[in-house]
Known about the structure:
Layout: E1 9-16, H1 20-26, E2 36-43, E3 49-55, H2 63-69, E4 74-79, E5 82-88, E6 94-96, H3 107-110, E7 116-119, E8 126-128
Antiparallel strand pairs: 1-3, 1-4, 2-3, 4-5, 6-7, 7-8
Amino acid sequence: MNIDSIENGYVIDHIPAGKGMQIYNVLSLDKLNCQVAIITNAKSQKNDVKDIIKINELVELDLDIIAFIAPEATVNVIKDSQRIDKKLLSLPKEIKNIVKCPNPRCISNNEDIDHIFKLTDNKGTYRCLYCETMAL
Length: 136
């Protein structure tokens, strides 16, 4: 398999195996007019396998979404085929409209309002702002 190197763009690395497509879908990377490569089940020294996403354009990325789905991921910024920055992610204090509240009685599922979850501990537990149900 041969995937070209990135001239200007991002390499999202150390994504847990199986989470790459979720990030791809939530970030709507299919809507971009540039090359996007998703590598699943790549060999990893830290873990047995990982996913990698390569985006061959410097577009706006929501790092909070990536951190919520894969907090151990890293985002390498590539310019002129050289890594100029490596962003280590941290869990966002709040997420909005990334996931829906699993509680069918929650107001966010019955009214036209945002689905907001707050980080409640340092283990990555998010709870609904309205009913305090834990995000799945």
